[in-house]
């Protein structure tokens, strides 16, 4: 992961783009890339989308990850730690006994 | 990274949620989480947002990463490979000579 | 408004597109168009964006409205009524005495 | 439509919120509301979503429209004109002969 982040930041530094990359615009960019990923599924079933657009899906997912890792880097967030700590919270929020086999949100279950 | 993906998938398997997690709904979820991340910056400068909402930003970024890794896993996309291959394409699309120090898009530059 | 909706639906009917326009994909499309609108502001201040991209902003905003009115039509939602009823709820949620001159969310104010 | 816009702007003026409502943050808000609308369809078919979440869908769609009309007002965009002019462009982009009965994008058709 650290090597990947280094590659991403060096790509940015070569272009001198850090000056534009404030966290608010990075968060905007993350939404834009996630939308471009979703666009591959518009008017389609999952199967059709993967059939027709697999290469695009892979590229857009990579863009989402690139911006995520950039933002983490700039905010000095440790990616691994952040994920494990959020999974821990999700475990509290969605205990197995209550949420096994249901897609309900925690707000929809008493 | 592989260990993180294992943790995420085991969280899902314990809840028997794979049945709901078709790629189209995962792509939707990715947009929703990216939007929740962005919500922390609404009506605020980057500095104000980080000051007030740092913990939330970290958690939402983790959610974006969790869904990204889940989707990569389900589509059998190698995350590292996908990122490096996309960076390579971006290098072609944004050659240093033309794009150093400018935030223009490749469509805005002749 | 009714005339506008008629124009929009007749555009769709001429192309026989209603078959693809289930509400879930229309909601997806709405997010995609809102993101394309936002893209015009990426890496820019409001002023720069309007200066450079005004025509695009107008077109993307129109697309957001077109999909919104289409979805309202398909779900038999009366647009005027829906807006006025939501404004009423917002007035309850954000009483003038508490929220005048502050950009805080209702969750951030006791 | 003009009356609706007046209601919306008067709601804002009573709260003195115009100071926060720069176009960039309004465009962000539009994405956030469109995402909240879409959230009602997450993990569900259109039918299930409408069955369970109709009231929420109506309210979120109203929020999308409220922000759209606010942004149009602030940028002095005539909503009706913008929609009709965009429909005209879409008619050029998607001529009936080529696009009748297909959900392909114009980039997918030669």
UniProtKB/TrEMBL annotation, chains A, B, C, D:
<dbReference type="Pfam" id="PF12643">
    <property type="entry name" value="MazG-like"/>
</dbReference>
<dbReference type="InterPro" id="IPR052555">
    <property type="entry name" value="dCTP_Pyrophosphatase"/>
</dbReference>
<keyword id="KW-0378">Hydrolase</keyword>
<dbReference type="GO" id="GO:0047429">
    <property type="term" value="F:nucleoside triphosphate diphosphatase activity"/>
</dbReference>
<protein>
    <submittedName>
        <fullName>Nucleotide pyrophosphohydrolase</fullName>
    </submittedName>
</protein>
<dbReference type="InterPro" id="IPR025984">
    <property type="entry name" value="DCTPP"/>
</dbReference>
<dbReference type="GO" id="GO:0009143">
    <property type="term" value="P:nucleoside triphosphate catabolic process"/>
</dbReference>
């Amino acid at each position: 992961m650290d090597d990947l982040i280094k590659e991403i930041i060096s790509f940015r530094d070569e272009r001198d783009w850090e000056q534009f990359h404030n966290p608010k615009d990075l968060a905007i960019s993350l939404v834009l890339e996630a939308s471009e990923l979703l666009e591959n599924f518009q008017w389609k079933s999952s199967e059709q989308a993967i059939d027709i657009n697999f290469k695009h899906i892979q590229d857009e997912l990579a863009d989402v990850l690139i911006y995520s890792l950039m933002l983490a880097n700039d905010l000095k967030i440790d990616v691994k730690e952040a994920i494990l700590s959020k999974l821990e919270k999700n475990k509290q929020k969605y205990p197995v006994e209550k949420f096994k086999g249901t897609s309900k949100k925690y707000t929809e279950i008493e």
